[in-house]
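Folding problem:
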Amino acid sequence: MVRTAAGADNLHVRWRVITTATARILALLTLIGRKAGDAVLPNACVFCNVRCRQERPPICDECHHELPWIRDACRVCGIPVAAQLPRGVHCAACQLDAPPFTFAIAPLVYAFPVDAAIKAMKFRRKLFYVPAFAHLLDESLRRIPADVDALLPVPLHWRRHAMRGFNQAAELCRPIRRMMQLPLVTNVVRTRATPFQSGLTATQRQRNLQAAFAVRGTVNARHVLIVDDVITTGETCRCLANVLLDGGVEKVSVLAVARALPD
């Protein structure tokens, strides 16, 4: 059967009408689904619960502005300083005892509401803070040198991982890995189930972490970026950096959401 030009045109018109109608129905269903999901899980600020615009990260403008941002920091350990230090000059602590890592970056002071949010994420399984923290790290990621070629979330001992159900550093590392397009170091383990670091002095932390980490095999990276939620005294990062350097890594650096002020 030979189809006439008019018949072909009519078929094309009918097909276009069907396609347009289908597209409109799909768009309506998408909108309904979005509204329903928004009602169940509204895009509210994770800090004050004020509703945010749908396309924005889950932090409102006012909270973003009021967070305890670190304006000036030591370029090595990331500790907040009163004024920007000249290039090549580090804080007094780093001059007295330079850490084994090349640099540490943390955009926020470990103070309210950041400290409460990190504790809620870590100890109460409030993992909805992870996208917010990843957004807060966005500017810091732009300062990471191009030679960083692998990420290492601070390992948890398997017992604590089993009890908690997740590793908060690994959860933070997921969006960072997507943004930076870098591989993970997966063969560094925590060999001892050390007590919690919170509440310990710097000396106690150092003793607590002795021989706590080990490299299984070879780390196929030259500059590893350690990822953690908070840098307190920096002892965990020091221990991990030493283990990595002993394992053949050339440089180690650190990225965290927050940096605790010295006692």
